[in-house]
Design brief:
Layout lengths: L2 H5 L12 H19 L3 H7 L8 E4 L5 E4 L25 H23 L5 H12 L4 H6 L1 H40 L26 E3 L6 E3 L7 H5 L7 H5 L5
Antiparallel strand pairs: 1-2, 3-4
Length: 252
Amino acid sequence: MDASYRRGGGGGGGSAPRSVEDIFKDFRARRNAILRALTHDVEDFYAQCDPEKENLCLYGYANEVWEVALPAEEVPTELPEPALGINFARDGMNRRDWLALVAVHSDSWLVSVAFYYAARLNRNDRKRLFGMMNDLPTVYEVVSGSRQSKERDRSGMDNSSRNKMSSKHTSDVGRVENNVKEADEGYDEDDGDHSETLCGMCGGIYSADEFWIGCDVCERWYHGKCVKITPAKAESIKQYKCPSCSSKRPRQ
């Protein structure tokens, strides 16, 4: 893939998009590319994300072409970079969940690129740009199908919400009082509880039944299977660096 696409410039080496309409056009084209990778071309995309390879990223370009590739080498990069190492979690997760995770990271990247270009726009133009972007379903909504389920549920929720308001208010008062009491009673409990710890790669919740490893640099925790570290291998590691920290080069 030509480097001009990765650096931006709207594809084809042209100038960076500057108007609201041009930035939205760039956003929509990159989004279409990502969607194609995660839907129509999903078998090809899945095959390219080999966990045995180095840290890979999913790029969507302004010519609506997608690419699985290594991150840009230049530091700092000319555009925000997509999530690093999407391939490592592929075989450690349910396929549908893994695709949804890639979709969430892709949505974040698409917004960051758009608002990188929008930095010079005024407040009203940025608001208009976001409104145009927000009118489109997110990549996650398309891949997971949550958009349709939300729309089906909304009508039923609207009808029942009014009836629940009065009873909800009464129950909430009692719930708040109980929560305060429980919080006070549990304040002195073991601070080493990892129940809210999330895997920095797949986002899964900590479980004592699985092997986890912590990065000594960023202090994030990971499933061993997500970063391809076994308990035996961990025994020989004096200082563990996660894939993200390992890929960062020291400033000269």
